[in-house]
Specification:
Length: 95
């Protein structure tokens, strides 16, 4: 069975008590050290708060606060080892 959902539906915005508004993510690339992409070394493709190396960052003004965007408690998680396909779609400029 295939299910396609925006990642924001799995993230709660603690300021509103609702799922994170779907604003997208910002491609920031990754810093490198000794020829290694740090995002790969740290295992970060996309991160819900701005810390560490990542490829896609949260554009929220409060993104440096790791208590603002948390796992949505009402959502069931995926089974450990479940296959997941991440679909990345380029959009126009952010508002």
């Amino acid at each position: 069975m295939t299910v396609r959902e925006p990642v924001e539906s799995f993230i709660r915005d603690t300021r509103t008590g609702k799922p994170k508004v779907r604003t997208g993510w910002v491609f920031v690339g990754s810093t490198m050290r000794d020829g290694v992409f740090l995002a790969e070394e740290e295992g970060n493709l996309c991160i819900n708060y701005s810390v560490g190396a990542t490829l896609f960052d949260n554009p929220d003004d409060d993104a440096t606060d790791d208590t603002v965007h948390v796992v949505e408690p009402g959502r069931r998680g995926l089974a450990v080892g479940a296959a997941v396909t991440v679909v990345i779609t380029a959009r126009g400029h952010a508002p």
